[in-house]
Amino acid sequence: MRTDLTAATTAGAIPGYLAVPDGEGPWPAVVVIHELFGLNDDIRSLTDRFAAEDYLAFAPDLLARGNRISCLVSVARSMSSGQGPAAEQILAVRDWLAGRDDCTGKVGIAGFCMGGGFAIVMANQGFDVSAAQYGRLPKNLAAAVAGSCPMVASYGARDGSLVGAAAQLEAALESGDVPHDVKEYPEAGHSFMNHSSAPKWAAPFTRGMHAGFVDTAAADAWERILAMFEQTLR
Question: pTM value?
């Protein structure tokens, strides 16, 4: 089953996109966190990809409440701190998934761009595994990864907005003794797992990122994500 729906959670009604694997569960689950552009077809496709690998996947729409600009400001603050309304919604979705009859109770988080930042800063808040794709690092990285679940992270070396982020994240995870797989792809920039282009309004935010799909990097990143998730969630 693939459908838009509203999850009834402890943080209220949270709209999003649910992808349920074919066959008979229960399955481990994944909370898929979208980019700055919101819950779009790219994120739905990525959520479907997890379901195709037998993960119950839900992508919450973190920009559904109120004015888009004010939502973006609030969500960005949550991404930096791991607290606030957006973080509370993510945790509530995790608990909602874990409590479903078709879930094993194990839940990972996977984020892209802005969502990648959430996957880093919330990896020590009760998830079983984290996949951070081109995620911005929080100001207090050491505190954010202290007690983190295992993490797989992917960056593009041509992404001018995240120069050195992969090395910094790997060093922090090593220092915190967190199981991890961090890789930077020399041929890729930002959003190398996404097929669609950024909307026109986002142009000021994407300069110097060399954003765009790169098949070699995307394929390898998926293999690494699935390997880490298989090891930790099954």
Answer: 0.93
